[in-house]
Here is the input.
Amino acid sequence: MAAFETALGLVFEPYTLWMMVLSGLFGLFVGAMPGLTATMATALLVPVTFFMPPVPAVAMLVTATAMAIFAGDLPGALVRIPGTPASAAYVEDAHRLTRKGRAELVLGCGLVFSVIGGIFGSLVLAVSAPILAEFALGFSSFEYFWLALFGLSCAVFISTGRPVKGIVSVLIGLALATVGIDPTAGHPRFTFGSVELTAGVSFIPAMIGMFAMAEVLRWVTSARTIEDLAGRQKLGNVFKGQWQLLRRYWPNVLRSNVVGTAIGVLPGAGADIAAWVTYALSKRFSKEPEKFGTGHIEGVVDAGTANNSALAGAWVPALVFGIPGDTITAIVIGVLYIKGMNPGPTIMLNNPEFLYAIFIIFVLANVLLLPLGWLAIKVFRRILAIPREFLMPMILVCCVVGSFAINNSVFGVGIMLVLGVIGYLMEENGFPIAPAILGLVLGEMIETHFMTSMIKADGNLLAFFERPVSAFLGAVTLSVWSWVAIGAVRRSLRASPATTGEVTVP
Amino acid sequence: MRIHDSAIGVVLLLLAAFMAREAAGFPPMPGQRFGPSLVPNLLAAGFAICGLALVVSGLRRREVKGLVELGEWARKGGHVLDVGLVVGGLALLILLWKPVGFLIGATLYTGLLAARFRGGRVPSSLLVAALACFVVDWAFRRLLLVPLPQGPLTGLYW
Here is the structure.
């Protein structure tokens, strides 16, 4: 109880509250800008958090992401470009509703159900994290190795596109993580005589490059035009009609909360996947599935709830095991390490007040979403009016400063540039970015636990299955790989006759 | 910019060969049969398998004509040059980081890029860029104590 009181004191300090409001406005701005993502908002905030105590730093990141995920609905509804990938699933319905003159209803729905989803996810985080942390105290290097590998496997196989490209992406991340002093023997690897590289590839510049710099390059190579409905819409009371929606669709809201949080908890899957899955479920169980995609609010209610509940869910594995639930928590884990708040089961023993502070911050950020989100809806037209021709170069400057600030070295800027170009090329060619980032973040952890386990077992691989939890996690991970491998072989066998046909028929 | 899957596969095979060759030079851990080369070797094997899979699938699918396909955007006036300016300009900013300093370098970089994206209007673009970079410089140097280089302006402002 004393820890909870301390946490309340830490969160309700004026400095922390101000930082939450400022980062909330920043998150709303980034989310409302088509093409800029919640992950990018988090990555750009990291250098600002370097110089803060842990609680305000984490409060900034949590608030910015919650706001950005909601704000992604605004350009989705008004200009038919999802502000963040998490709003992509229901952009067609949201935009068509706006075209029918129901912008008020759809934007209010995005706001209210984001808050409901966010608070539900926060409560699940608050209840499950301490229980899981206690259970995880008995874990050894074997369990951690399988858990981290399972997280990477999920990131590979849940990502869209071909599994082989997801595997290449994760291998790139893991390979980048091998650069520098090796964690068990202390031997320098792939450093090419560079003193800077002996410390490894710092993942903050890597992340800024792969998400923010790559996004700027995508904009430069795009059509750079948007269809604007914002100027033609009159927005009155956005809360009108929301209670009726909640009464009508409460089973959907409940289902989306549970599914969204569960997907968030799954390592490697985040808000965007939660939105797609719950939208599909909504259509599958709807009484009016034929209306989906034509301007129907049901899918917006479901997916809008799920993407915010997944945000808090992703923090469960991040805090309890130190394994990120999505790309946002991958960044947060880095920040926690920088702050000396090493995530893992012992966080509950060593820093219980910090854990409680995170729970309070989550609830508070989602409550704050109501007034700030309402404000964002009202001023969205002005946000959209900021010329992208100025904004994109300024984002590049923020990328440069952020990458420099991590070690006060221009080497970080170089890493950001190189990985920005690589990230752009990867996405253009169907290689998902998220597995590479998770590989980079988890690489050292996986190698350390793998090598420690190998030394303990004297090289006997069967030892990885001797402990019950380790055997279970190993079996689950290997099942995922087998399932995907069998699927790939089947697809290949089915495709073979067709391919042969294409070649032989003139 | 789309690259032929087979070409990407060949690059991955070369990367695998390079990693394996480098890893061969890592010493084993005392008293163990394995050492710092174990994980790089496993990753090299992964790259080799995926590289082979991409070479084969690339030859079967042939989704990209030729080795590289630039896409629709490359046909629009100056988009290729824009990409070159973003990447090349940033490389130049890194090279001239200390002698030119952040404020001058970043103002020129963002101002000229903005002018290019707006189709001219250099003075107004440079003015807006200078103001924005000044705010960034103030926030990071003054508030967050990040030692951004000042170049020729050293000692002239905070």
